[in-house]
Every structure is written in C-alpha cells, then in structure tokens.
Specification:
4-stranded antiparallel sheet, 16 strands, mainly beta
Amino acid sequence: LYAVDLGGDHVVRAVTGLDGASLEILDFVVIPGGTLAAAQASDESVSLVDLTGVSPAVPVGQFTTLRGVSPEGSQLLVGDIYGAVTLDLADGTQTRLQQVPLDGEQPFIGDIHLTDRAGARVQQIVIFDPDAGSFTSAIAWADNTGARVIYLTPGDSGSIDDFSVSPNGQSASPESPLR
C-alpha cells in the first residue's frame, strides 16, 4: 500500500505494517475525516494505518473480508465465515449484522454499505423464486429489525453490476449493464 500527501510534498510513501515493512494488502478503505485507513493484509489481519506514516499501525482483528466503513468513519464493516460484522473503531465492539428476511423470504446477500452507526445498511440482494425458477436482483435497505426493497431491475429481470452510496449515506445509485 502506498500513499501520497496531496496537501504536502506529493511524495509517494510506502505504508508500513506492524513489522515496519511495506504493507502488502488484499484490500483497504480510507476512514473519512482524517489520515487513517483500514488495511487487510495477506494473512487477513486488519489494521488501522496512518497514511502519513506518523503513527504506527494498530491491529483491530482477523477477518475474511474488509467491506467498508460507515459514512462518518466510526465503524468498519468486516466479514467472517458467518457473515457481516460492524467493528466500532472507538472501543473495538463487534456487532454481527443480522440477516433479515424480506417478505418472509431469506435473500442472498451481496455487497453491503453502512448508512449509519446503528447498523442500517443498503445491500445488494438476489431473491430466488422457486415457482418460476428465476432470480430477481434488487437493492434493499435493512437494519437488524427489517428490510425493504428500494430498487428492482426494470421488469424484475436483468442484473445489478454494482451500486454506490453517497458519502452522507442518504442516497444510493445502482449500476446495471446496458441492454
């Protein structure tokens, strides 16, 4: 992982891990509001790293995925073999995001973006219709008590390639392939 101080000398610097060596990563996310990033090393350890190189890396745990960060930067979204977990950056508290049914059905969960520190999220889902033998791609809003579809593909057909959530967590924009 390398960083450039855009407000300073514009020199490319290697970001170092716990051992002081250049960090080789699987994934990273920049934490809003400062110079920190969360980086997942090749051994699946996740650390907070200072992109300016001033402060040493701080380990926060071992996770199979590093998925994102909440809009205000207080929570990391990580994953383990059982699903998605939020990690509070202030106190290290881990909270498992409950998979909630949608209209009585358990959807397949794809990409997830946190929208607030309470676990509300926008997520890509796929719903299987066993009677028709088909799948429907959708974007849903959920928290640990319920979920609702906020976007379906036109005619309930096709797929959603990706989606983005605005930095303030107030808007979502799906991306579907051209037909």
